[in-house]
Specification:
Elements: E1 3-8, E2 11-16, H1 21-27, E3 38-40, E4 45-47, E5 56-59, E6 62-65, E7 76-78, H2 82-97, H3 113-120, E8 144-146, H4 156-164, E9 171-173, E10 180-182, H5 199-203, E11 209-211, H6 215-223, E12 228-233, H7 254-264, E13 268-271, H8 272-293, E14 299-300, H9 305-314, H10 328-345, E15 352-358, H11 362-366, E16 373-374, E17 377-378, E18 382-385, H12 386-395, H13 417-420, H14 427-441, E19 459-466, E20 469-477, H15 479-490, E21 498-502, H16 521-537, H17 547-557, H18 563-569
Parallel strand pairs: 1-7, 12-13, 12-15, 14-21, 15-18, 20-21
Antiparallel strand pairs: 1-2, 3-4, 5-6, 5-7, 8-11, 9-10, 16-17, 19-20
Helix pairs in contact: 8-10, 8-14
């Protein structure tokens, strides 16, 4: 490997040819502020448009952008010259001159990179005054709010949407002072092919892209007295919520999280993991049914709502391959309203409110899909994200770190280790394989770890021998990788029997509702490792061994894949290739055939 030798602030460093000054500076712990640059090796994302010009440094004859300038042999870089500092400050002051001054009420307050850089540079006054650009906010969707007035044209969202997720909704439009990153013809997000994965939110440095804020609505639901309020918590939340309170990434905060939720006033605190175990029994049954009939293969997992939206828009001809199982969130809501309420509490479904705490902003969109409910009663009433839960805990003045650990309520709070794996890429498939293996072979699976499907690589594949039957499996995370896999399926070139797809890089642990990791993918890895640690520490590690699930079938659902299970736990999908949602209620006029068999 050819190395280039240079000095940065008097420190000698050797880096591979093709390295930028910004990346070289990191090798000698020299911090160069920047806004537009984002480099995430793990997902091959590099946003290197050098548009913000905040990373200007002295190199040779003048100033150059560190993120867009490659190192040269013998280069002498100085990052803190008076000329460089003045240039950075001027650029930030210009950005602030055309930026709303509502920092205290902005959803990104405290996490805004522009705000942090302005503070670091000691900017207290806005020197430049003049016309400010204005565009109306896009609040059309259930998941994402687009505020064009806070956009600094860093293009991070555009890179994420087009290159990593390959959705292609966002693009630079107009020229000069009127330039903005938006949708084609300024179409509202709910009327585009946006999947609501929210990865644009995850990389936005300002408040230009945020989630739909449901905190006040959650407080209203919690404090009303007309309905019983039930809350569920997704597996990825427990390994990320601690970051909002100063704990190390990957800290397992399950017990403290449960205690905090009860302190907020929730009386019925349950675990989405219960429904994840339920999902496995239904999805494994569906898979074995299709495998036996050699029909509608490969089966495609359907836990991720952004992925479901993606296939509805891009591969409607393959909707028959998608599992008809609802996501764990929706299965939980359905059981809470149609079993727990009537059978346990003697309360009608319409008198129960289900609040979901999720790592995902697409779950806000999912719970509003009109087909996910019974008799005009939606399975889930409202979704708040990990970040929103943290806001509620802080609003209530609760010190999460000092709380004594508490357990989930039962019967909808017991789960196996397999359910915890739903939060990371490959986990749904591994959980399904644990159950499918024992159902097919009628033998105990002593080693439950399917290491071949673990890890955060974009596409993983393996061949599993189940009592002489070779099952070819595939795992993809991020929609760009999903597209690669689905293109082969569409061409008839796929060898797989089952494919797991998650829209977010890394799976739910990297969801857009999680604490911001600002491109540090090691944080995502630590969350994933924490979920595997939870799984390995549990006595029950197979979904079908969960006694609460067994009791649910005995008392209500009869058996996996039964008629009543289909009624409450399965769904259907839409062909959205030519027909977009007509409103943010997500109604479609063109209904695909049901995929329930």
């Amino acid at each position: 490997m050819s190395l280039v030798n240079l000095t940065i602030n008097g420190k000698s460093v050797s880096v591979p040819k093709g390295t930028t000054i910004l990346e070289a500076a990191k090798q000698v712990n020299v911090k160069i502020p920047n806004l537009c640059h984002l480099h995430m090796d793990e997902i091959n994302m590099v946003n290197q448009c050098a548009s913000c010009r905040i990373c200007m440094v002295s190199a040779g004859r003048g100033l150059v952008p560190a993120c867009g300038t490659l190192v040269k042999e013998g280069m002498n870089v100085k990052t803190n010259t008076n000329e460089a500092l003045k240039a950075r400050k001027n650029v930030v002051e210009l950005l602030l001159s055309d930026h709303p001054k509502d920092c205290l009420s902005c959803d990104k307050n405290g996490n805004c990179e522009l705000q942090n850089i302005a503070s670091d540079l000691g900017i207290r006054d806005i020197k430049f005054e003049g016309e400010m650009s204005y565009a109306p906010m896009d609040t059309s969707s259930k998941s994402i709010v687009k505020d064009y007035n806070k956009c600094i044209l860093c293009r991070r969202c555009e890179t994420m949407c087009n290159e990593i997720q390959t959705v292609g909704v966002l693009s630079g439009v107009n020229r000069g002072f009127n330039t903005q990153v938006g949708t084609f013809f300024n179409t509202e997000l709910c009327n585009t092919e946006c999947t609501f994965c929210g990865q644009c939110i995850a990389v936005c440095p300002t408040g230009a892209l945020t989630e739909v804020n449901n905190v006040s609505t959650a407080w209203d639901i919690l404090n009303q007295t007309q309905k019983v309020v039930v809350v569920q918590v997704a597996p990825a939340v427990r390994v990320a919520i601690g970051e909002e309170f100063g704990l190390e990434p990957g800290s397992i905060s399950t017990g403290k999280m449960v205690a905090a939720i009860r302190s907020l006033g929730f009386k019925h605190v349950f675990d989405t993991n219960f429904a994840a175990d339920l999902t496995i029994l239904e999805e494994a049954s569906e898979f074995l049914h299709r495998l036996k009939e050699n029909h509608n293969l490969p089966i495609l997992t359907s836990c991720c709502p952004a992925w479901v939206n993606f296939i509805e828009h891009n591969y409607p001809q393959l909707l028959n391959l998608t599992s008809s199982c609802k996501s764990p969130q929706e299965m939980f809501g359905s059981i809470a309203k149609n079993y727990y309420g009537p059978k346990v509490l003697n309360i009608a479904p319409e008198n129960i409110s289900v609040v979901s705490i999720m790592p995902c902003v697409a779950k806000k969109y999912e719970c509003a899909r009109h087909e996910l409910g019974q008799d005009n009663v939606l399975d889930v009433d409202i979704v708040i994200t990990t970040r929103e839960l943290a806001k509620m805990i802080k609003e209530a003045g609760i010190d999460l770190a000092s709380l004594e650990e508490e357990e989930f309520d039962n019967p909808l709070g017991q789960s196996s280790g397999a359910a915890d794996l739903f939060g990371t890429s490959g986990g749904v498939l591994e959980a399904a394989l644990r159950t499918a293996y024992e159902w097919v072979t009628d033998k105990e699976l002593t080693d439950v770890n399917f290491n071949s499907v673990r890890g955060l690589e974009g596409i993983k594949e393996a061949s599993i021998n189940i009592d002489g039957t070779i099952v070819n499996v595939c795992v993809a995370n991020s929609l760009g990788n999903a597209r690669k896999v689905m293109d082969e399926v569409a061409l008839g070139n796929s060898k797989y029997h089952i494919i797991e797809i998650m829209a977010c890089p890394g799976g739910c642990i990297g969801g857009a509702g999680q604490p911001y990791h600002l491109g540090d993918y090691d944080i995502v890895k630590k969350r994933s490792n924490a979920l595997y640690a939870i799984d390995s520490s549990k006595r029950l590690r197979k979904s079908h061994e969960n006694p609460s699930i067994v009791a649910l079938y005995n008392n209500f659902l009869e058996e996996p894949y039964s008629e009543i299970a289909h009624k409450y736990l399965h769904t259907y999908y839409f062909d959205k290739s030519a027909v977009y949602e007509e409103s943010n209620s997500c109604n479609c006029s063109k209904l695909a055939e049901s995929t329930c068999e």
